[in-house]
Amino acid sequence: MNENLRLLSGGANLALAQRVAELLDVSLCQADADALTPGRFPDGEVRVEIQQTVRGKEVFVVQPTSPPVNDHLIELLLMIDALRRASANMICAVIPYFGYARQDRKKKGRVPISARLVANLLETAGVDRVLTVELHAGQIQGFFDVPVDHLRTDALFAEHIREHHSDWLSNLVVVSPDIGGVWRARRVAKELEKPLAIVEKHRRSSKEEEPEVYNVIGDVAGHDVLLVDDILATGRTLCLAAERLRAEGAKDIFAACTHGLFTGEALSLIEEAPLRKVLVTDTIAHRAEVTGHPKVEIVSVAKLLADAIQRIFSRKSVSDLLVRS
Ligand code: R5P
Fold first, then answer.
1. In a mutational test of the pocket of ligand 1, which residue from 232, 259, 261, 290 has the highest number of ligand atoms less than 8 Å from its CB?
2. 24 and 141 in one domain?
3. How far is CA 87 from CA 73, 120, 128, 200, 310, in A?
4. Closest Cα to atom 5, ligand 1: which residue?
5. Together in a domain, 148 and 159
6. Percent of the chain with pLDDT over 70
7. Which one in 39, 72, 79, 113 has a CA-CA gap of 20 to 30 Å to 62?
8. In the chain, % of residues over pLDDT 90
9. Left (φ > 0), alpha (ψ -120 to 50) or beta: where does 206 sit?
10. Ligand 1 centroid to 98 CA: how many Å?
11. What is the 232 CA–ligand 1 centroid distance (Å)?
12. Domain range holding 135?
């Protein structure tokens, strides 16, 4: 790998950054005097000090803005600022999970468009381009004036299933757990050459306390099912959809969710739900109880990211790896 490339990691997902570094055959650049990850001042403020020269270099900074979102976002902004002031030639923020993405429009009055503000902050800090994975909404790319390379995980999941779970494929229907994610599930269905169904959830009125109604559009009775979603947070969307599908006569139910946040009681919900296996990627660093859970399986995005970094650095097309929407 070229001497002009630098790979740097924030504290959010050091393991993923290390895997990417191995694949690129580079060493991770230090962002702090004591460790590879940024440290803290005694009052808790983030301390960043890039340990190698980056003057004239092309620097890729790996940092998902996963929980604690605000800490990880500030670390990323400070690293970008430090790199800019240290005369890096190009700074690419590699954000495998882009936090605040679900606040991408004004659903009602007096709320922020947080995803847009995060994009503005990154640009103000001095980022030249962004590399990200499975954005909640593709239009977030338009919040940036700098180039955004948006990688998708449909082919990654499809390949993983073909390679490790071919037994899932004989009788499978791919299902989106909500209308908003249909395009995402359709891509996986296309990759696997399987039919598509949809769980449509809505409230009969605009009142939050009104229970949601779940309708299944498409034929799942007697079929195995693969639920596809971008985010697994509380696990509620996935588990309620799985229960509804089981009630409709679905047999084995599997899931593939790109970003596994596993907040709150998510793991307990998954344990009780009629889900046989949940695939998530390593865009977010997982705690041991997630990686060790018998229902959870991790699919790595490291190669996808390494390939994209390699292509960006070599000024080659990233289009084979990119969303084609
Ligand atoms: C919603 O629009 C997203 O695509 C996910 O379905 C949602 O964020 C999952 O959240 P939870 O796991 O908390 O239901």
1. 232
2. yes
3. 21, 21, 13, 51, 21
4. 231
5. no
6. 93
7. 113
8. 86
9. alpha
10. 14
11. 6
12. 5-152+302-324
Cβ of 176 closer than 6 Å to ligand 1, yes or no, is: no
Residues 272 and 236 in one domain: yes
The rounded distance, in Å, linking the Cα atoms of 222 and 202 is 25
Residue of 105, 136, 231 with the most ligand 1 atoms within 8 Å of its CB, for mutation: 231
For 271-323, how does the pLDDT look when each residue is reduced to its tens digit (9 = 90+)? 999 999 999 999 999 999 999 999 999 999 999 999 999 999 999 999 877 64
Q: Work out whether the CA dihedral 16, 18, 20, 23 comes out positive or negative.
A: negative
Q: What is the pLDDT of residues 82-97, one digit of tens each?
A: 999 999 999 999 999 9
Q: What is the pLDDT, as a whole number, of residue 207?
A: 66
State phi, psi for 253 to the nearest 5 degrees. Answer: -120, 125
Q: Is 201 an active-site residue?
A: yes
CB neighbour class for 275 (10 Å; exposed up to 12, middle 13-18, buried from 19): buried
What dihedral do alpha carbons 115, 120, 123, 128 form, nearest 10°?
40
Tens digits of per-residue pLDDT, 228-264?
A: 999 999 999 999 999 999 999 999 999 999 999 999 9
Quote the pTM value. Answer: 0.95
Ligand 1 pocket member 99 (CB < 6 A): no
Let me know whether 148 and 158 are in one domain: no
- Enter the DSSP assignment of 312: H
Determine the distance separating the centroid of ligand 1 and the alpha carbon of 109, expressed in angstroms: 22
Which of 229, 284, 296 maximizes ligand 1 atoms within 8 Å of its Cβ, making it the mutation to test the pocket?
229
- pLDDT tens across 175-231, in order? 999 999 999 999 999 999 999 999 998 766 666 666 677 899 999 999 999 999 999
- Residue 325 pLDDT greater than 50, yes or no: no
Statement to judge: residues 146 and 278 lie in one domain: no
User: Which CATH number covers residue 125?
Assistant: 3.40.50.2020
Residues 137 and 176 in one domain: no
**105 and 13, same structural domain?**
yes
Domain count, the chain: 2
